[in-house]
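Hey,

The postdoc asked me to send both predictions to you directly instead of through the lab channel. I've kept everything plain text so nothing gets mangled by the mail client. Protein one:
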Amino acid sequence: MLPLSELKQGSRGRVVSIAAGHGATRRLMEMGLIPGETVEVLSNYFGPVVVRVRGVTFALGRGLASKVLVEVIE
């Protein structure tokens, strides 16, 4: 298990948990980052982490992305 912010570009992971406060957790879940959901990292260089969840692409700040714990899908 590792933070979403550490997944490499092109990698996919399954959300295991969110280690954030109530407000941030709710916001992330509204974006589709719920336990069991698959997330694909489209860009993870400097700056925000760009991901795709359920066909929707969005950017997360590195701090927020570090709160999402995922297991890598090989």
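Protein two:
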Amino acid sequence: MDSNQDQLVIRLKEKIDTVVSLLEKSEEEREKLQKEKVQLTEQVKLKLTAFEELERKYESLKLAKAILGSGENSHDAKIKVNRIVREIDKCIALLNH
């Protein structure tokens, strides 16, 4: 009977060692994934910031193209800008009354 108990204890210790080893590997993997998550989150933030900057530049270019039109020179563009400014001034004057 003693021999059977000894074998049971030995098998139990082996299984416990296996479980502990698996737990340690799982914890290491979790830490690795956590670090990777932080890195990826930072990359996403950087990409989002770059995207927003490019979007702003694109909107500025669209506005500049709309003001300049196709093939017009800067004199015509200045005339358009002055006309827009005058219209805005008229709107402000109407709002003040």
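Summary for protein two, as requested: The first helix runs from residue 2 to 68.

Thanks,
C.
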